[in-house]
Amino acid sequence: MQRRLKKEWPYHMLLLPGLVLTFIFSYLPIYGIVMAFQDYNPGLGFIGSRWVGLENFQLVFQTPQFLRAIFNTFYISLFKIVLQTLASVSFALMLNEVRLTSAKRIFQTIVYIPNFISWVIMAGILLNLLASDGIINIVIKALGGRPVQFISNRSVFPWTIILSDVWKTFGFGTVVYLASITSIDPELYEAAVIDGAGRWKQTRYVTIPLLVPIIVLMVVLALGNVLSAGFDQVYNLYSPAVYPTGDIIDTFVYRLGLQNGKYAIGTAVGLFKSVISCTLISLSLWVAYRFANYRVF
Amino acid sequence: MRKIARNLLASLLMLTMVLSALPALAQAPVGTREFVPIPEGNWDAPYETVVNITTVKGAGADIVYEDGDTHTSNPWTRAWLDRLGIEVTHLWVDDGNTQYDSKLNMTIATGQLPDTFKVNYVQFRQLMDAGLIMDLTDLYNEHASQRIRDYEKTDPDTIKQSTVDGRIYGIPEYYYGIIDQPKDLWIRKDWYEDAGSPALKTVEDFENLAALFMEKYGGYGLAISNTLEHLFMTGPMFGVYLGNPANPNAQYFWYKDDTGRIKAGIAHEEFKTALQYWAKWYEDGIISADFANADMNKMIQDLVNGKAGMQPHYQWQGWHVGPNLVAAQGSDNAYMIPFPFPTMDGSQVLGQVGFPNNRVIVIAKTCENPAAVMKLLSFTDHIMFDADTVMTEEEFKGFTDGQREHTPGSLEIIDPMADMIQFEHVLHALKTGDTSELFTAGMKKKYSDSISWINEKNPGGLGAYLQQGFDGCAYDNSKFLIDNGFIKRTDVWGPPPVEFDKTINTIDIILNGVMEIIMGIQPVEYYDTVLANWYAQGGQIMEDAVNASYGGQ
């Protein structure tokens, strides 16, 4: 052990700053959760502020806006996961059929690039593209249709959020699934060819079944973060006109806690979200282990 | 070799981490933090031993310093030290002044309060509950200048909001005067003149002008943002008076209805009339089809790019939009001028005046030399507003150029008659050329800025010119309303009652409903449902609270 430590101490030193920062900024502040159960007064601090029990939680759960925010969060997140998976898998399958390696790499890079663009920039682009006089509506009008309020119509807004996020992030999933496809044993395809299977049947009976474990794993892991519907994206695109369908837990807490200074209530909502997320993540990891033999440790 | 490099890198990273955790090497304070006897004499008698006072502040992004000066080292800080023997140390400065409240809340939570700082009324209540701030009554009466104490003659009610059981715990920062409160309808000067400078007395006149602009220049008519802050400014056109949804401390404007009950403007009957017209404007294209997506920057961008020619705004519109508009359009005539809002029947519009004081100056109980704070406040007032102040041109520029009149931050106190007096003298000087009565730094600055626009078309002076520089400027419009009593003053002359803390995001209910009605998704009658929801989810609590606290006034 000592000899090993002597040999490996530089690696431990490299890890140490990260561990210390994580402890200071992620573990120590956990004590601040007590704010959720107080009528928090910064002047009195955590020790001196009045204990109110579950009053903050009662106040929030009696607010229809919050309950709607929970529903919107699940709605947007679940559809994002489903559509992202479909898009990623479909594109990976199509990319797998491209024979020219350079072309394959070019397409892969092109679909992956939006993943790196900040939502602040992307929102600015979308607001211009989807405006009443933006290019999308110009095309719609040219085809004889009526302009669509993609950003300010409460019925359309959730789908604007979902589809724009799918477009931005499906490239990442494509890379994962493509890597998984390329690791499939070629002998299986050869056997399929011998049995008379064309490209479509090879895809249907060889590729997809062998892709299922990684798909399940990706979906299950994504489910663990279902309560994070994309604060950056929603915050930069939403407006009061679409609060009923576009307001998610994070944007609700932002307005409540930071803009209006109600830190205790904001903490209560954040705590609720953390408990649910923790439960979902634990469940998803168990399911991933059970069905895909994936373990974190 | 590789092993050595690896070990070296690891050690370097460790050292970096340790060093980053050390406090910054700040310059040691010159002044003492211990108690020093208060100098005999007036407020301007300097300390013989330099005392150190700590503070925090938010600083606007438009403040410009010269010759290597900074927010914490500049003509003001040097004057405080040289003339009063007070060294002011800033524990932090919120550059851009967008996070001041959040940072201050964190500072309060650490328990390490600066000696003096500005707080909003929620923070004031919290600090009072925590017993962390000093009783200022004796200090204020004995060591603040007479000029500051005379502010109460102009506004006797505001200081009462920070007085508890007859003792003063916070000194209001005050404001430049209610002259800066009424809003105007700002219109492109060049477009208006091209249209023949038509009369603008009625809502119909406004709609006709907007249609004319749209026909001639394209785009839409009235620039507003998606917070509805600017659209709500048109409330007086319909006899309703509304708050600023974008300001958490002033989301509602409260005044009595015919029964004597204080209600928020959004609960008055006239609000539905406003909704009808706003919905019609949206349908007619006077309000942009994309207004729900337009934040403040987008709104200004549209004006600068000539997509709209009208905007409801504050008296400082000339600074906010003017220079960029002139530059973008390439014409010295392409700025916007203020007009009183028209009304439905052409009758006199009323100017809306809300409770104008946003913050109070408090002193922590741990401060050993609180009299020094009184001296600093008195100094700010003396430099900016005292007619008897004598200073050189260089000193004047040092204190006021580049928006540096706001450098004092938490040590800035404002004469509530400042802008009314200033405007009268500045306009007189501009009309007659007689500058002998420009006796405050503020007057000189507004005059010189206006002259720089008039003579040199310097965009930096356009804001002052539009605010105070000619008959029909923003302050001229406001002065007319004030002098003739054409004012709608809020019946809640003070901060929101503490019961408001039990409500959550009630304004969202109103904003969402209003937007749906404007965009035609719901009919105007739907507002009855919106209002009922608002009352059910906190509106009733707020209305009962303001009537209990202010109903007897």
How do you describe this structure in short?
The complex is a heterodimer of chains A (297) and B (553). Chain A is 72% helix and 1% strand. Chain A is built from 14 helices and 2 strands, in the order H-E-H-E-H-H-H-H-H-H-H-H-H-H-H-H.
Report on this model:
The complex is a heterodimer of chains A (297) and B (553). Chain A is mostly helical. The mean pLDDT of chain A is 88. Chain A is 72% helix and 1% strand. Chain A has one domain: MetI-like fold (Orthogonal Bundle). Chain B is mostly helical and 553 residues long. Chain B has 2 domains: 202 residues, 3-Layer(aba) Sandwich (D-Maltodextrin-Binding Protein, domain 2); 213 residues, 3-Layer(aba) Sandwich (D-Maltodextrin-Binding Protein, domain 2). In chain B, the strands form 6 sheets. A 3-stranded antiparallel beta sheet of chain B has the order 3-13-6. In chain B, strands 10-7-11 form a 3-stranded antiparallel beta sheet. Chain B has a two-stranded parallel sheet with strand order 1-2. In chain B, a hairpin with a 2-residue loop joins strand 4 and strand 5. In chain B, helix 17 packs across helix 18. Chain B is globular and about 70 Å long. The interface between A and B is large, with 47 and 47 residues.
